[in-house]
Design a protein that fits this description.
Number of domains: 1
Helix content: over 70%
Number of strands: 0
Structural class: mainly alpha
Shape: globular
Order of helices and strands: HHHH
Radius of gyration: 13 Å
Oligomer: single chain
Length: 78
């Protein structure tokens, strides 16, 4: 989780990047988390991935509140 927080801070800290580029980078990282899950993934691994996604979506919410809220809503809906 510490690695994720450092990554988020790094992305949010880029002054020259547009908001869209920051959001895309965060979503790309999130996509990688789910891509690494497989049929044999344990419930603990799935829960941890969901926790990390929530952290990423909260970071997106700081950039674009409406978009972040939508991601969080759908994550909770699962």
């Amino acid at each position: 989780m510490e690695k994720l927080i450092k990554f988020i801070d790094k992305i949010l800290g880029y002054k020259t990047w547009s908001d869209r580029k920051k959001i895309d980078a965060l979503l790309e990282y999130d996509c990688g988390l789910y891509t690494n899950l497989g049929l044999e993934s344990t419930k603990k691994e799935r829960t941890e991935t969901k926790r990390k996604s929530r952290c990423i979506y909260r970071a997106i919410k700081t950039i674009n509140k409406e978009e972040g809220d939508r991601f969080l809503y759908h994550l909770d809906k699962e």
